[in-house]
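User: what does the whole thing look like in 3D?
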Amino acid sequence: MARLGHPAGEKGIAEGCRSFGSLQIIATNSSLSPEQVVADAPETQVFGWQLYVQLNRKSSEEMLARINRLGRIKFIVLTLDAPVSGKREDDERLNIQFHSTGSVSTQLFAGTDPFLTWTETLEWLSEHTTMPIVLKGVQTHEDALMAAQHAPFVKAIVLSNHGGRSLDTAPPAVHTLLEIRKYCPRVFDKLEVWVDGGIRRGTDAVKAMCLGAKGVGIGRPALWGLAAGGVEGVERTLQILSDEMKTCMRLLGAKTVEDLGPHLVNTSRLQRDIYGGMEYLDAGSSVIVKGKL
Ligand SMILES: Cc1cc2nc3c(=O)[nH]c(=O)nc-3n(C[C@H](O)[C@H](O)[C@H](O)COP(=O)(O)O)c2cc1C
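Assistant: Here's the predicted 3D structure for the full assembly of 293 residues, as C-alpha cells:
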C-alpha cells in the first residue's frame, strides 16, 4: 500500500533500505509487484515476501510459484495475526465518504483464509516452497513454543500485534518477549525471535535486542519517511534509527550487539504487566492459546 504515501512505493523503500543493509518484507497487498520492487536491487540486498493465505489456495500457490521463480526472495513470512480484519475506525469513517460496500480493510481481507492450522498450513507451505519460513504475529509464549517445535522449517518468528491494528488491547511484542524469557527461554535456541510494533527510537530497538530479539521491524516509520520525502525520507528514517542505536550502545558501553543482554534493561515495571497465569506448555495439551488481552 506504500504508493498511497508516495509514487515510489515499495520500490522506494527498497532503495532506501539499500545502503543500510536492512531487510525488506514485501507484502501480499503491496502496491507494486514483487518483480517491480526487486528490479534494480543488487544481488546482496535481502527481501522476504509476506503471505496472506487465500481461501482460494490455487491463487496462493500460483503466487508462491512466482516468488520461487523470481529467485530474489530469500524467505516467506506467513502472517498469522490478521485472519479477519480488525475494527479500523478510521477506515470505517472513510467508508462513509468514499465507498458504498465494506471498509478498505474489509475489502483488503476479503478472501483471506481464517482457518490456518499448525499442521495443515505448514505442511501445505512446505509443498510449495523450500525457502525458510518466518511466522509473523506471534503473541503468546505458547505459540512461540509451538513454532519452535517446527524449527528448522520455521526459521524465525515475529512477535507482533500487527502494529496494534488488528485487535485493541492485544499485548505489545515486548510483553511476549518477556513471557518467552519467563516460561520457555529454550525458544531462543531453536529459532530467531524478531519483534515489531511501536519501534520509534534507537533505544526501542536496542532494548528489544537486549531482551533476546535478533531483529527489529518497523512499519509506519518507513511509510512516514517515504510519504514525507520519497527514497530520501526512508533513508533519513533509517539514518536516525541507526544513529540513535549507535549512541545508545556507546552510552551503555556495548561495543557490539553480542555485548547486549538483559542485564542492561530494567524491566521491573513491565514484569508487573506480563501474563502471570498458567503456563499451558504441555505439548499434548488441548488448550491452544492464541492471544491474551
Ligand atoms: C499501512 C499498513 C499496512 C500493513 N500491511 C500489512 C500487511 O499487509 N501484512 C502484514 O503482515 N502486516 C502489515 N502491517 C503491519 C506491519 O507489518 C507491522 O507489523 C507494523 O506496522 C509494525 O508496527 P509499527 O507500524 O508501529 O512499526 C501493516 C501496517 C501498516 C501501518
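In plain terms: The radius of gyration is 19 Å. Residues 67 and 168 are 33 Å apart (CA to CA).
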